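Journal club prep, notes for RB
We'll compare a predicted complex against what the paper describes. Inputs for the beta-D-fucopyranose case:
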Amino acid sequence: MLSFPDSFRFGTATAATQIEGGCTTSDWYAFAQQPGRIKGGGRPDVACDGWRRWRDDLAIQKSLGLGAYRMSIEWARIEPRPNEIDQAALDEYRRMLGAMRDAGIEPMVTLHHFTLPKWLADRGGLLAEGFHTRLARFARVAAGALGDVCRFWITINEPNVLAAQAYLLGAWPPARQSPTEALRAHHRMLAAHVAAYRALKDVLGDDAQVGVAHHLRLAQPARPESSADRMMAHVFARVFNDSFALATCTGRMYGPLDALVTGPEGFRVAEARGTQDFFGINYYSRDVVRFSPGHAAELFAERSVPPGVEVSDLGWEVYPEGLGMIVRAWAQRSGVPVYITENGIADATDSRRGPFLVRHLAQLARAIADGVDVRGYFHWSLLDNFEWAEGYGPRFGLVEVDYATQDRRIRDSGHLYAKIARERVLL
Ligand code: FCB
């Protein structure tokens, strides 16, 4: 029988743009208006109407007995125009976080979850002069207003994914396809993370726990006997998966290449060392990688899913062992407590989410039994929601949302998760 200590936190995760609706000042709001950008033409205009229905969603979490919630605050809503802070929006977030704590649910707040105020995107977004100073200023505003109702903070969500989707693959705003810009965006986000980390600690002191939600995947060679595939898997892992996370642990991002990537004035990658009080892991799947001359933009790595394996509705392989391997490796590398800040599956029929949950949690319970310091798990997601360029098709929720009526219905996997969280054992 596998069990979890009493101190282990079971929670769920969401992000503002994916659930809130009612914010017209973000880059994603504008992007989704452009024809062809989002599958099925979905737009985040209403999403789950969470900005108005958060009390209902909090009541659902309470009824499930969950003890933690990861959410993001919408920068574009709080600072809709440069240097103009919307106090009413901050007050609403304050009410939300306060109510959460009253309900015995520990909040974790992300400052930057993929979206930007439109005015900042228009000035160059992540590549804008002074992006890092802007994020740090936003961190100060958020900490000043919400610091007494929130102890856990994430500066940036999945910087590697954002750099790749927005600047390399052209799928997210500003829809660029430039490897050099992708590298620069990645690097700028590192500078911004360091600046935001310092701002939060400066305002809130050492009691605040600050980290990054690192998107980590395994990269394994398609043909283990092929040295080209092995090399590709290694390079792909080193550049895409690991570089940002390594920088926060060791102060080195691309190794000797660090000297070549120019950053915002005065920033040195070495400053990133030790800028996290906990290590956040978003884990979904692994990549099986083969060398392919046709995939130059992706570092010559063609990623695939092995034949016959179980996949999600998005075609992502279900590979729980990867979570165990990643947790163990990064707990050691980082030397700080680990939280699984996201893990979940697109599964409209809810036939695979239950076993998915159990198998991934089993990996964590085993790691904990072996002495690995894993303190919590946030399932992605509480609700079905707006899945970026994939639109409303993928269903990630423990709770089903009917977008026509905004009715919520707890899925069987939601009840199962509640039982595990209550009993703290996996049978
Ligand atoms: C992660 C994102 C999150 C959600 C899940 C499915 O990469 O952080 O917003 O879209 O994937």
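Talking point for the session: The mean pLDDT is 97.
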